[in-house]
Amino acid sequence: MSIGVLQRYRELLPLNEETPLFSMGEGDTPLVRSRSIGPELGCPDLFFKLEGCNPTGSFKDRGMVVAIAKAMEENSIGVMCASTGNTSASAAAYSAYCGLAAWVLIPKGEVALGKLAQAMAYGARILLVDGNFDAALALVREFTQHNPITLVNSVNPHRIEGQKTAAFEISDLLDDAPDYLFIPVGNAGNITAYWRGFVEYHQLGHNDTLPRMMGFQAEGAAPIVRGEPVAFPQTIASAIRIGNPASWKQAERARDQSGGVIDAVTDDEILEAYRMLASREGIFGEPASAACVAGLLKMRRNGLDLAGKRVVCIITGSGLKDPDMAVSSAQANTLEVKPNLEAIEAAIMESLPSGNRATGH
Ligand SMILES: *Cc1c(COP(=O)(O)O)cnc(C)c1O
């Protein structure tokens, strides 16, 4: 049986005797050493934390399990969230598991297909809002203030508490905090959660050091970088298409206290990192996840010295969430062939690395 986040980190979470302890297998995700990008950047100790390996395919499950457990403890009848997709998938799954109703507000036309499919399959009540994420979140905040339904966006403090456990896992595996933590920033709950996790582990004496927090927004949705909300955020990375982050101030604090940065990367840089991660590391993250790898590549280009540094990139969600993006961005690899051996052989000879082409029989 999976131990899960609630039991494993019981002492470090806001639980009591009334809180139900259950798990759908969240947490304990892989930390994989880079074999290609790290060495190329002069950073042999580059690791990827695969949060897409959580039960619904994103890190949101870590916080959701705590939020749902607390909602159960409080005898809530149901939960509600606004979502760019992954929060709704997670809320819907954990609600299904626990027998709660889930209402999810989704910006119409802006959610990746896999995420919408999940919310539908898990049986959430889906309200498609003719507006963006920020508008949907404002509605949910207002509604849940006056109704006995639990808000499970990351403004619910239990979400951040659960998400901080990823910092504990990284520290346990590396025997200390890394030097740099690269992470995508949308609503800014996750960067807040990681910083809290590292600080708590440091205070408890488990870690000697603290990482520099390196957060990355998409250029068209970079309110923290610009210093003002973005009314109409635009980026291909739908999970970070957010113009007015709920945890804005906390993210700035994480950046400043850690000596880190919050910077922006373009959609082209995100797509380049997205393809590189999948084709050269075998790691298929969603575009938002690739934003932190794009950030790493950018910082390296700008002269950041990574020699002897331990660096972790948080691959926040699975690439399967956004199949349209995968197909449209890799179509050049696809070739139609006739169903005969000659056609297959010709196609394979054509695509071999040039040094191997002189073979054959
Ligand atoms: C939610 C999400 C993010 C952004 O996290 P925030 O806590 O909103 O900053 C990034 N990547 C993925 C895959 C997500 O689901």
Largest sheet, described in full? Answer: 6 strands, mixed
Spatial strand arrangement across the major sheet? 1-2-10-7-8-9
In quaternary terms, these chains amount to single chain
Rounded average pLDDT = 95
Instruction: Please give the count of helices.
Output: 15
Distance between the termini: 53 Å
Taking all Cα atoms into account, the compactness measure Rg is 21 Å
In N-to-C order, the SSE pattern is: HEHEHEHEHEHEHHEHEHHEHHEHH
**Strand residues, percent:** 5-15%
Number of strands: 10
The shape is: globular
Q: Which blocks of ≥5 consecutive residues have pLDDT under 50?
A: none
Could you tell me which ligands this complex binds, including any ions or cofactors?
A: pyridoxal-5'-phosphate
Provide the helix percentage. 40-55%
Going by helix content, strand content and strand pairing, the class is alpha/beta
